């Protein structure tokens, strides 16, 4: 798939700068659209095939559907990791996408949801899921800030190494095993969520579902390539025009535009849940998505190719950890109130302001 990006870059190489920027914007928008659209197609058709094959709805809900909202992040991060193998560049988009998406999920997605509709937090969530999320986040921050220094190409760079990526994947498998075991003890929490999906599976023929799985997978891969093409192109063009550091420019694009774009499935899911009065789904969606982003997406991407990035990402990782810790504290109170949602949104605005100032003035850690 690397040839697609190279083909597009070669095609527009001699174009007028304004046309190049327009092409990058179109590529980024098209990529985000493909990720969101084909992600839905892939999840629905995969669920249909699983049900036709008599696989438990419980397992489907905890695996295919759960991973589905993380497919956009996976496509972008793996695509960027592969690009960096040949170009010997930092994977700013890959790492920034995961960290930025997690920050966006907590501060923006959950912030908006809670601002409109407060969420009652179950005890098992605050005592079980939230500590797991906080622990996984702390491990990722540790990997980024401590062990990466010895393996990065430059002393000023940080990295998620291949063996760290493998550890994250193993932790993801362990978490999935734990979730499935716990869910089998309480199947009543999952069965009702799959009632509507059961109707869809009966309506779609198996042959059509298989074709749509292939179409969805190809669309997600293409979407990831277009996002990497557009995001990196815009970052490099902007950095060159304003004489900014290229790593910082790539980092802010990955942490903002790409992160928000790949978080659209979570945002849409939370918005629909809030509209239906089922706002508790938003919290579970954020927790599950953030865990998959760190353990599954970052783990797979780093296993494909060690992810090196500029030292500034450590601040972003610490912001992710702080946001997760703050959410944990809010959850311990038993309810996420409107004031909590406003606080999360205000912190996100402050963080975005910091990112802009960092990029403009070239701040680094």
Which residues sit in consecutive blocks of at least 5 with pLDDT less than 50? Answer: 149-155, 190-201
Rg over CA atoms, rounded to whole Å, is 20 Å
Q: Quick one: CATH class?
A: Mainly Alpha
Strand content: under 5%
Distance between the termini: 34 Å
CATH T-level fold name: A middle domain of Talin 1
Overview of the structural elements:
The chain is mostly helical. The protein has one domain (2-361): A middle domain of Talin 1 (Up-down Bundle), CATH 1.20.1420.30. It is built from 16 helices and four strands. It has helices at residues 2-11, 17-52, 57-62, 64-68, 71-87, 92-116, 123-145, 162-185, 188-191, 195-203, 206-241, 246-262, 264-275, 280-304, 313-332, 338-361, and strands spanning 119-120, 157-160, 307-310, 335-336. The strands form two sheets. The protein has a two-stranded antiparallel ribbon with strand order 1-4. The protein starts with a helix and ends with a helix.
Briefly characterize the structure.
With 365 residues, this protein is mostly helical. Helices cover 80% and strands 3% of the residues.
Key words describing this protein structure:
365 residues; mainly alpha; A middle domain of Talin 1; two-stranded antiparallel ribbon; 16 helices; 80% helix; 3% strand; globular
């Amino acid at each position: 798939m690397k040839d697609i990006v190279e083909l597009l870059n070669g095609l527009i190489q001699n174009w007028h700068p304004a046309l190049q920027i327009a092409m990058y914007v179109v590529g980024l928008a098209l990529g985000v659209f493909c990720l969101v659209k084909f992600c839905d197609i892939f999840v629905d058709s995969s669920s249909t095939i699983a049900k036709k094959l008599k696989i438990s709805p419980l397992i489907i809900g905890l695996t295919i559907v759960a991973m589905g909202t993380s497919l956009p992040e996976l496509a972008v991060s793996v695509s960027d990791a592969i690009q960096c193998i040949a170009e010997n560049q930092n994977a700013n988009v890959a790492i920034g996408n995961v960290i930025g998406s997690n920050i966006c999920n907590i501060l923006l997605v959950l912030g908006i949801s809670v601002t409109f509709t407060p969420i009652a937090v179950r005890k098992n969530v605050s005592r079980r899921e939230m500590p797991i999320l906080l622990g996984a986040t702390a491990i990722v921050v540790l990997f980024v800030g401590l062990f990466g220094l010895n393996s990065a190409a430059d002393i000023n760079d940080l990295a998620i190494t291949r063996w760290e990526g493998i550890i994250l994947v193993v932790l993801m498998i362990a978490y999935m095993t734990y979730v499935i075991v716990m869910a089998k003890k309480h199947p009543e929490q999952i069965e009702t969520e799959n009632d509507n999906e059961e109707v869809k599976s009966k309506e779609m023929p198996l042959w059509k579902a298989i074709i749509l799985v292939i179409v969805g997978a190809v669309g997600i891969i293409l979407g990831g390539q277009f996002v990497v093409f557009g995001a990196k192109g815009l970052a490099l063009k902007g950095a060159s025009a304003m004489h900014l550091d290229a790593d910082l420019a790539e980092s802010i694009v990955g942490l903002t535009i790409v992160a928000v774009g790949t978080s659209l499935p979570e945002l849409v899911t939370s918005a629909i849940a809030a509209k239906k009065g089922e706002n508790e789904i938003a919290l579970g969606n954020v927790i599950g998505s953030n865990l998959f982003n760190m353990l599954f997406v970052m783990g797979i991407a780093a296993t494909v190719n060690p992810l090196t990035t500029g030292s500034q990402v450590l601040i972003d990782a610490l912001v992710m950890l702080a946001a997760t810790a703050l959410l944990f504290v809010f959850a311990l109170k038993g309810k996420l109130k409107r004031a909590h949602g406003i606080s999360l949104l205000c912190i996100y605005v402050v963080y975005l302001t910091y990112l802009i100032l960092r990029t403009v003035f070239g701040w680094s850690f």
